[in-house]
Amino acid sequence: MARILLICSVLLLASCSGLSKEECQTADWEALGFEDGVVGKGLETVSGYRESCGKHGVRIDLERYKYGRNIGLQDFCKPNSGYEAGRRGYVYKGVCPAELEDAFVGPYEEGRIVYRAESKLQRAESELNSVENNIDRIERDIRNREKVMLDDKTEADRRRQLYNQIEDLKRDLYREKQKIRDLHEKVYQARQDFEDVQLRYGR
């Protein structure tokens, strides 16, 4: 599985940059197909290679690519790989051969359940953290303005301006604090849900 993740990272970089003329001319299409298959890439991926190499006047070896990809899929479409793919948020597009799909899809769906629960928890925690940061920022802005407003050197017009700004900030602060209780409950519930699915489907 560590090998699969490493290949996935390498291929992600390659897919962003495309293939150069030299890469198209020297490509081992069977090996590239295997690497795409072992991380569950769809056959449509080959269109990107065809486009990149076509610009350089190089024709890809589609049959060798398909052969290598099918071998890679034999590795990817195992139950353990299915669970890990779902757990990482991989979107399954029906790439597994019919004889392997049933054994893959069940664990994949279990992994997806855990992934979605964890993602929900992370979003709730991020939302809470954002509001807490806003509260800290607003309170800091209020303190800074109060300090200037109370300074003997601050002119009257500037004091009135600062006072109005502080009142606006206090209203903002009140609104943000109103959100906190609900967000704490949201995080708590999301954490409970995540722990429940981990107990049921975690590995």
Average pLDDT over all residues: 90
Overall strand count: 0
Structural class: mainly alpha
Shape: elongated
Helix percentage: over 70%
Strand content: under 5%
Total helix count?
8
Poorly predicted regions: 1-17
What is the N-to-C succession of helices and strands? HHHHHHHH
Largest sheet, in brief, is:
none
Distance between the termini: 14 Å
Question: Can you put this structure into words, describing what you see?
Answer:
The chain is mostly helical and 203 residues long. Helix content is 81%, strand content 0%. The protein has eight helices and no strands. The chain has helices at residues 2-17, 21-26, 29-38, 45-55, 62-76, 79-87, 98-149, 156-201. α3 (29-38) packs parallel to α5 (62-76). The longest helix is centred in the middle third of the chain and has 52 residues, at 98-149. It is elongated, with a radius of gyration of 27 Å. The two termini are 14 Å apart. Residues 1-17 have low confidence and may be disordered.
Helix-strand blueprint:
Blueprint: H1 2-17, H2 21-26, H3 29-38, H4 45-55, H5 62-76, H6 79-87, H7 98-149, H8 156-201
Helix pairs in contact: 3-5, 6-7, 7-8
Quick recap of the structure?
With 203 residues, the chain is mostly helical.
Key terms:
mainly alpha
